[in-house]
Amino acid sequence: MDVSRWERHTLLATEAERDQRPMMSVIHYQLALAESQQLEPIHGTRDELEDLLTIKVISCHNLAGFWRRAGDNEYELKYLQLASEQVMALIPQCPRKTCDAFIDSLGCCRSALIEFLKRHPNPAVAKQVEHINLSNQCELIAKFRLH
Description:
By secondary structure, this protein is mainly α. 66% of the residues lie in helices and 3% in strands. A two-stranded antiparallel ribbon has the order 1-2. Helix 3 runs antiparallel to helix 4.
């Protein structure tokens, strides 16, 4: 996965913002986001997929930060929502919406969310949830245990 174009646009955006050239900054942040969306994993390893997700989320957060500093809360929220969607795409969705462990707003069960957080790239977050075991509350997992 070649991230050099993404890196270049991110650096140019940061430099432009530092030099107080907001139009160039937002253009390069947008180009970095576009580059991040075009990236594809080569080997499909867990590390490579985590790097790809991190790049996509960073791109969204860079734009959210830009709009926050510009005083535009609406655009800031849109880019934070886009970052959230990038993460949500990796959490396994569950078809059992009547399960007690199902979280409506996320479309997944608590077990899937906790397992996802255990692999969080930030070790502090992963450490906070490492001892939580909610699989006994998931109807789908309980069904497999019975058979």
